[in-house]
Amino acid sequence: MITNEQREKLRGWFAGRLPDDLFEELTEITVDREEITVIGRIPAPRLAEDAPAAERDAALESRAQEFRERTREDRMAVAREAQHRFGRKVSWGVECGGRQTLFTHVAAPVMTRLRQPERQVLDTLIAGGVARSRSDALAWCVRLVQRHTDDWLTELRESLEHVQRVRAQGPDTEPDPAPRADEEE
What we know:
Largest sheet: 4 strands, mixed
Order of helices and strands: HEEHEEHHH
Strand order of the largest sheet: 1-2-3-4
Structural class: alpha+beta
Number of helices: 5
């Protein structure tokens, strides 16, 4: 968990470090313990207003792929520097024509112990064709919770930031007071 100030500094570092012509706009930077994900807006392909959905989908997909190929070297250079500086892998994505496409991202293992009722939920999702494995089913559950708890998670993150600010003001953060003139050293 990082504070808003740390997130702002991270965003500022990327805004200053990315080549000016890489994105139209740096739209999103997310960070967790393992990964920093950088997403920027790129120009949408020009299509007729009445273009069929299949044509639009193919054009957006190929535009994202073209950007990925063309900018690989620049993005890799920034990623190497950021990984060294921040100790996290860097993943990339684009927003194009209202669609977000991730190029790379970390799939971090999460160790957990589930009791039988919890495993049965995952197995039911597998049997129903929602997921291919327990790992996929667990990821599906996390996405479902995430979709429905944004307000709660935002409030929790703000509370954690408040706790970090209070800790930073604690007695261990201030320098030792200088001895008074009437005290011996």
